[in-house]
Hints:
By secondary structure, the chain is mostly helical. The chain has helices spanning 3-10, 28-58, 97-100, 103-111, 118-124, 160-163, 171-184, 187-203, 211-214, 218-221; strands at 63-69, 75-81, 128-130, 156-158. The radius of gyration is 18 Å and the shape is globular. 29% of the residues are buried.
Amino acid sequence: MSLDKFRDEFEIPENYFPNLPVKEYFGKRILDFLLTMIALFFALPVMGIIAILVAWKMGRPILFCQKRPGLLGKGFWMFKFRTMNSKRDAEGKLLPDGERLTPLGIWLRRTSLDELPELLNILKGDMSIVGPRPLLFRYMPYFTTEERKRFLVRPGLTGLAQISGRNLLNWDKRLACDVEYYEKQSLFLDLKIIFLTFKKFLIREGVSPNVDEVETWLDEERKDQKQV
């Protein structure tokens, strides 16, 4: 979905984004590129093994690709390893996410290894290593004016919300973390978030593989609080 199509579909005004500067400290893209190249050096063999396992256990496609709003709402294709099957009900509709999540998918989510293909998004410049997680286009009418600051920084593989509880946080707290990151972004903060993310990865803390068990859809939770 393009931003123009999104505006037409949801009647988004031209002044949707706050009249504030896009933030990115000097050298952030260089840091992203260098760290991502190092990460890929070690991750590519692991990604190859995961790709084989996904193809064997769930078939194709191996990757889950979905268009998400990035910096200033520009759409980009986000890549992740597939974690769910394609089972449908008698009417041909996909079953709820929790019912389609496979044992391999649960392991990939619990270890966060399903996120590894997003390293390619970082190399392309669609994402950064640190920033607000890219959410769904359909959520955009439900962000408050303050929360829209999250679109003034490049979306990230990890961020303040991820080291503060990930999907165990409620939406208000998670989005408040995104705003805080916009306001406090710095090299030191990024390095701190990367360190704490790696620590949480090792101890597997702060994430539930089955999102149906711990979180609601933002548009459903705020259906009576539509902003635009």
